Amino acid sequence: MVKKGNAPVPNAHFHKHWNPTGSQKGHVRCFFKQGPQKKIRRARRQKKAAAVFPRPVKGPLRPIVHCKSQRFNMKTRLGRGFTTLELKTAGLTDRRYARTIGISVDRRRRNHCEESLALNAERIKTYLSKLVLFPLKAGKKLPEGVTEEDIKNPVQSKQDGFPKASSYGKNALKPEAPRKLTDQEKKRLTFQFLRKVQRDTKMVGKRIKRKAKKEAKAAKEAAKQK
């Protein structure tokens, strides 16, 4: 094609190289192995389950965290590990011991709200209530709550025994039941009200410091007058 004026050189490639004997052989890939691959993946899962038996198939327990950014923070997913505060709230003081019983730990993560702290602490407590610890050596005393039948007939958990991470965002906070609006709510300007709540939440720390500073100044002036 002849170039006219100050225009870009056409460089659109619309011809796909379907010819198996051409110079560009193999540039168009087709996936005809989806059926066999399904069987292969299943066999791999069974092999992994047998290798880690009687530990859970899905690996160590992980916390429920919210996704990053304002766009995705309403969604939940599985995090890297539990915080030290979540472990202490659940009754585990040693994070190294927590790792040995199948609980993942992340020292860098921090808790920013009471809801996530309570949710993940309850997740750990539920896991500990279902946990069966085997003795490290034969002939040793069995841990508390473990019987001989539990060791002879161990049950491997295919799932971790908890709902999916995505379901926590829907069920953690139940919506309020429908009701009639009050007269005060009808007169309220919703946008300004939400902005005020957001501003109050953001400025709570600065306002507490400012109030304490004023009280200290007033007390100092009162002491001078005496």
UniProtKB/TrEMBL annotation:
Residues 176-185, 215-226 have a biased composition (Basic and acidic residues). GO terms for biological process: translation. One of its GO terms (cellular component) is cytosolic large ribosomal subunit. Keywords: Ribonucleoprotein, Ribosomal protein. It comes from the Eukaryota. GO terms for molecular function: RNA binding; structural constituent of ribosome. Transmembrane segments: none annotated. Residues 1-20, 148-185, 202-226 are annotated as: Disordered. The keyword Ribosomal protein applies. It holds the Pfam family Ribosomal_L13e. Residues 204-214 have a biased composition (Basic residues). Belongs to the eukaryotic ribosomal protein eL13 family. This is 60S large subunit ribosomal protein eL13.
